[in-house]
Design goal:
2 copies of one chain form a homodimer. By secondary structure, the first copy, chain A, is α+β, with helices and mostly antiparallel strands. Chain A is built from 8 helices and 8 strands. Chain A has a 6-stranded antiparallel beta sheet with strand order 3-8-4-5-6-7. The first copy, chain A, has a two-stranded antiparallel ribbon with strand order 1-2. The structure holds a DNA duplex.
DNA sequence: TAAAAATTTTAGACAAAGCTAAATCTTTCA
DNA sequence: TGAAAGATTTAGCTTTGTCTAAAATTTTTA
């Protein structure tokens, strides 16, 4: 049985380690969950005793297999609730996160799985993030980063990696959102920007920074 | 901002005081929430400092107006979630309670009110209990206890007070449930039992104990 | 009505989870 | 390479909420 606080730590460690393979530091976690490095050390030692993280003093820590599984099941709950709130209770993107943070700690496998069924076994949450399945596995699909799409190909946005409001505002301005169709017209190796076409809009140029935060599925064929 | 434990105490005190107007004792609360009288004293003193209960040492305690409001808002959440679980996630009566105990502590007025709207502003939960409204008011209706229905009258079950599985099993056996139509055929003052008729069933006799736990609405006229 | 029984409160401990300040490692770079 | 600087850990304290055992109070009953 894990406590609320322990679950928050597992989720934080998982999210931080998605950015790279390195061990996670107390400082990173403290910043992530708005706490202090000394508090993090305390908790990491508890999690280490429970075999949820591998920990070497002064060297950082990583999730064990068991810790990673638990983290993914929490993320599963979070994303299913987010989808429920947006699709059925008319929540907007900005209202959803805080409430899902609370709902993700409700412990009832029956509830999660019934909710999954109610939502029709969705693969992605409202942000396009993949929802781990009942066993905590990430169902991978054919999503790739926009920078990897070849010239002249058409693709569809499936995931928006940077969920900052600045980026979302920018995307609104250029008429890009989840499922938007994008055709690559030309790429400029000099600064790695690309020119693209969105149906019924004039062509625009996207910077490397933008492309790196847009993930897409290639048109079938 | 109330904590999880404080909310459980408020709800317990409210539920216990529904049985009568007397002040509530530490022993009663301890039994209700599976705890010890000394722990209850501690918490009551905290709640008293927050003006959520009126407390006189050795004399028991009652909810203040503020305490009662908070209790009713928690009960509102509990009952709305129960209804959601039964109506939309296919939970059975017996599975519902434990999960609703957790969901009732999720703190988001927006969430509760959106859920209320999603369920179409229901008046009663799956047990027939009245759902307090957005201001914590109990919408009273024309429900009365079965013992008060006059001879020869017909009525409909609206609320099952005793929700023990023993009672629910008994009700199944005699084909009584929420909304069942019951006609009073005859009453026996000797032991206060009554003979009743349910459509398409043979007449049966209900003991005083059973009648006291069945609440009904009189047929219009 | 006074002693026994029951209930309630206090006192002292404990665990979880957080914090600050001080001590201890690592890393950096002059 | 050997101080500084930076990061991490430890030590000690705080709050919430629980418990047991002992003390205080109320209720029961003989």
């Amino acid at each position: 049985m894990e406590t609320h606080a322990e679950e928050d730590y597992l989720k934080a460690i998982y999210s931080i380690s998605e950015n790279g393979p390195a061990a996670v530091s107390t400082k990173e976690v403290a910043e992530y969950i708005n706490s202090k490095p000394s508090s993090v050390t305390d908790m990491i030692q508890r999690l280490s005793a429970k075999k949820l993280v591998d920990y070497k003093k002064y060297k950082g820590f990583t999730l064990t297999k068991k810790g990673k599984e638990k983290a993914l099941l929490i993320i599963r709950k979070h994303r299913l609730w987010e989808l429920f709130l947006v699709e059925h209770l008319n929540f907007s993107w900005s209202e959803v996160h805080e409430v899902a943070e609370q709902l993700e700690h409700v412990s009832s496998p029956l509830l999660v799985n019934r909710l999954d069924a109610f939502l029709n076994y969705p693969v992605r949450d409202p942000h396009g993030d993949i929802i781990p399945d009942i066993n905590g596995n990430l169902r991978d699909d054919d999503t790739i980063v926009l920078t990897e799409v070849p010239n002249k190909k058409t693709c569809f946005v499936t995931w928006i990696k940077d969920s900052s409001s600045e980026f979302l505002t920018y995307l609104d301005q250029v008429n890009i959102g989840l499922d938007t169709e994008i055709k690559i017209l030309e790429s400029y190796p000099y600064d790695r920007s690309i020119k693209v076409k969105i149906p019924r809009k004039s062509a625009i140029t996207l910077s490397e920074k933008v492309c790196k935060n847009l993930y897409v599925r290639l048109n079938e064929n």
